[in-house]
Amino acid sequence: MRAGSPRLLREINDRAAIEALLRNGPLTRAELEGIIGLSKPATAQLLTRLEDEGTVLRNGLRGGGRGPRAQLWTVNGALAHVAAVDLTPDSIDIAIADISGATLTEHRAPMPKTDVLAAFHSAVTKAAAQAGLTTDALHHVVVGSPGAVDPATGRLNYAPHMPDWENKNIPEELEALLDTSVTVENDVNLVALEEMIAGRAVGVRDFVLLWPADAVGAAVVVNGVLLRGATGGAGEIDALQVPDHAHADTGTRRTGSRYGDLLDSPGIARLARAHGVSARTGLSAVEKALGAGPAGREFLVDLARRIATGVANVVAVLDPELVLLSGDIAQAGGTTLADLVAAELRRLVVPRTPVRLALVTGKPVRSGALHSALSVVREQVFGLPAATTEPFSGPRRGEERTASTSPSAR
């Protein structure tokens, strides 16, 4: 085995320390020493070196009970900044964060029906200004959007709810507007990424995430990697033609209904009314059904039949470990709806795939976009590996033993 050079070993340990600080927040020297496995003198030298470079900062003191208070260390967030954007037909929801992951500001603006690019530029510019930045000072921007960008053309495909964004090279136009690098990612893919990082799919290698809404979307993860497809359209099942297996008669055709029409808000509300559950929206219908007795139960069973019919096509091909239901409709239905979908799914396909609720709620698209943007920038600035769902790998005593590994923090 060939011994690693001192420079290589320092780089390995520096990356390990930076990653530990990013994952765990401010740490004392002793805590960092325990995580990365270096000796006390080696950890002290590492922190001095990183502080001299401006990579880490002192961040107050931690009380030590009867003993002396210990110095806390943190990554210098000012080294780089990112923006995460949740783009919908109705709104632009933005968060600006520094490289440590600390959110500096949030801004939400309506999405007009015309001049959409100008509105986008204005919203991001305002959010950046709130954080004391200009858009060209953002190191990377990730935009979560319905539909998917074709990697060959840059055009947004499979997005009927966002017609004003069609026939444009979206990443190219947004980069020109903001004067910085931009990634446009399918919104449900970003939710799946967030579930892999902080939700129900941590440690799950193969799963499908479904978002029942006005534009039904799915994300497919195979062997821990998002499956995007040749044109970016993997998981775009909104236009899938399926039979309506609901028992109540809502006027839909039993053969060849559009999956998205069965699960959009008007479609769910009609199904609820057919069961005697009066509601103006699909969300309120599901909420009311949980306390509406037998009528509510039968409506939820019918809704589960509709959801399972589309999911079955994906499960039959992929045989994933898990199906996750995400979004407001799924969360309103809770474990009751998830269990009903699982039961219906077992009637339709051979795999006995469990169905669970996604754990990440609130703003999962924006959260996924933020993690994606941070992954890009941390790789550029610190040389850390790109987005991963695996935890920090632990001790690496580089300066106290020989090494033959590549310069990686894992």
Automatic annotation (TrEMBL):
Gene3D superfamilies, A to Z: 3.30.420.40, Winged helix-like DNA-binding domain superfamily/Winged helix DNA-binding domain
Region (Disordered) location: 387-410
Pfam families per record: HTH_24, ROK
Superkingdom in the source lineage: Bacteria
Protein family according to the UniProt entry: Belongs to the ROK (NagC/XylR) family.
Protein name: ROK family transcriptional regulator
High-level lineage: Bacteria, Bacillati, Actinomycetota, Actinomycetes, Pseudonocardiales
